Amino acid sequence: MELHDIQRGVLSPRPSPYAATYILFRVDDRADGRELMRRVAAVVTSAADTISPLGETWVSVAVTYRGLRALGVPQPALDTMAWEFRQGMAARATALGDTGDNASEHWETPLGSPDVHVVLVALAPDTPTLEAAIDRARPAYEQLAGVTAIWRQNCHALPTETEPFGYRDGISHPAVDGSGIAGSNPLEQPLAAGEFVLGYPDELGGVQTTTPDVLGRNGSYVAFRKLRQDVAAFRRFLRDNSADVDEQERLAAKLMGRWRSGAPLALCPQHDDPELGADRERNNAFLFRDDDPDGFATPCGSHVRRANPRDSAVAGEPRLHRMIRRGTAYGPLLPEGVLDDDGADRGLIFAFVGAHLGRQFEFAQTQWMNDGVFFGGGSARDPIVGLGEGLSDYTIPRRPVRRRLAEVPRFVTTRGGEYAFIPGISALRWLGELTD
């Protein structure tokens, strides 16, 4: 792989802890938009960089379909890009389950609107370092009258590596053949580079590309999602369906497929093991097909088994739907023990990276997260992040009688999102050099 030309945010797992920010830009003047591309091309960190040009701060940039049009990319070139990308996430709302109060008309302004053109993501070891980097960078775009920053979301990764529901997050990461970056599961064979980056053969032997090649090569598609988490409702659900605190934790583990420490039920089904949960060499080293085909340890409907079925026979060919996932918490944590919503906006900013929006993100969202047909679960949605109207149900296999939870509410709400393209660094320079 041409690692020097691939943005580091595509392939490299994020450090921990860290602070991050997402800044959205609207391009009103084509020349200024191109100048922005030239400037970010000089500071974006590549996958080959062990040290960022900005020190310990990483910068990545993505461009939406409307953003590419605003920069003046010729329409014949745009027509060679993924059709889901050309439509945009808001136009795909019904298919993705973004209906009712998840619908795009309820999204946070300006998410999902035609004004979102460029997405800049910056990471740093801590908030003061991040703010200092943003302050230094601000004049670079504020001097461009034709480029306007229209939205910003600050995020964070705690030293505990937990997300708002209290689970250790960011554990699973696929190995990409040719990247030199190890995956988190030693039992998983590296995936073909073309599953995640354009210009390389994928698992089926095909090569995703664009015309001209420079636009797409070494780039990746990304689905950004802002999901609000109702932590108080989640805690009440655990309390109302458990006899005591210990049972609450067992139920939480059965919903996720891991104890909140990160220890997988596949390796310790009867009790938590925080030491295992914190061990990056062991906490993701498991499969399902031979060890737990019926879900007695890890329920087939649990989040980890839906999001990554691994070698599960009922999921078809999971390798064709594998994505690189980046999740970052935002908003204040709800204090421990609080069962009433305090009105604060909290949740996760997700970034799903791959070369095939349709058979990766959209397939996983519609077939695995929002439906249970693939494992015999009917219309039951993912108990953690599934979207849909009304209540769902959830089954925990056990002997002699399974446990069925008939009224599982939805704990997340879509607050916005967008499809974007993360260009290779050469493509950023090409965008900056476009002429009319």
UniProtKB/TrEMBL annotation:
Taken from the record, one Pfam family name reads: DyP_N
User: Which keywords does UniProt give here?
Assistant: Iron, Metal-binding, Oxidoreductase, Peroxidase
Task: Decide whether keyword S-adenosyl-L-methionine is in the record.
Answer: no
An example Gene Ontology CC term for this record: cytosol
Iron in keyword set: yes
Q: Which PROSITE patterns match?
A: DYP_PEROXIDASE (PS51404)
Say which domain of life the source belongs to.
Answer: Bacteria
Provide the DyP dimeric alpha+beta barrel domain boundaries: 19-136
A molecular function annotated in GO for this UniProt entry is: metal ion binding
Cofactor(s) of this protein: heme b
- Give the family this protein belongs to, as stated in its UniProt record: Belongs to the DyP-type peroxidase family.
Q: Which NCBIfam families match?
A: Dyp_perox_fam
> What's the protein called, per UniProt?
Peroxidase
Taxonomy of origin reads: Bacteria, Bacillati, Actinomycetota, Actinomycetes, Micromonosporales
